[in-house]
Amino acid sequence: MEEKTFTISGTYQDRGEMKKFSKEVSAQNENYAREKTFSLIGSKHKVKRNAIAIKEVSGKKE
User: Fold this and answer.
1) What does the alpha-carbon distance between residue 24 and residue 58 come to, in Å, rounded to a whole number?
2) CA distance linking residue 51 with residue 3, whole number of Å
3) Does domain 4-61 have CATH number 3.10.20.310?
4) Half-sphere exposure of 62 (CA within 13 A, CB side)
5) For residue 6, which of 22, 25, 21 has the smallest C-alpha distance?
6) 56: number of CA atoms within 13 Å, CB side?
7) Residues 6 or more apart whose Cβ sits within 8 Å of residue 14
8) How many CB atoms lie within 10 A of CB 33?
9) Strands, sheet with 4-14, edge to edge from the N-terminal-most edge strand
10) Nearest to 1 by CA among 23, 25, 32, 36
11) For residue range 31-56, what is the model confidence (pLDDT) as tens digits?
12) Is the pTM higher than 0.85?
């Protein structure tokens, strides 16, 4: 399966305030890209999945 690059943007809650983010991730499909984003934001900023809101997913083929 081909890897695509997805740009994912949204917000996450950190210490009571909402912060915006935008990430580029490589994944097989949109669902894997969402999961990878949850994992990356959660591990870097120590927030749970329910504190992360993905607003937009756009993909481009490599």
Assistant:
1) 10
2) 28
3) no
4) 13
5) 25
6) 8
7) 45, 47, 51
8) 23
9) 17-27, 4-14, 52-61
10) 32
11) 999 999 999 999 999 999 999 999 99
12) yes
Residue 5 and residue 24 in contact, taking contact as beta carbons nearer than 8 Å: yes
Is 41 in contact with 21 (CB distance < 8 Å)? yes
Q: What are phi and psi of 44, to 5 degrees?
A: -75, -40
pLDDT of 61 over the 70 cut: no
Strand partners, 36: none
Kindly state the tokens that stand for 16: 């009571």
pLDDT in the model for residue 31: 95
**Coil, helix or strand at residue 16:** coil
For the segment 2-30, what is each residue's pLDDT rounded down to a tens digit?
889 999 999 999 988 999 999 999 999 99
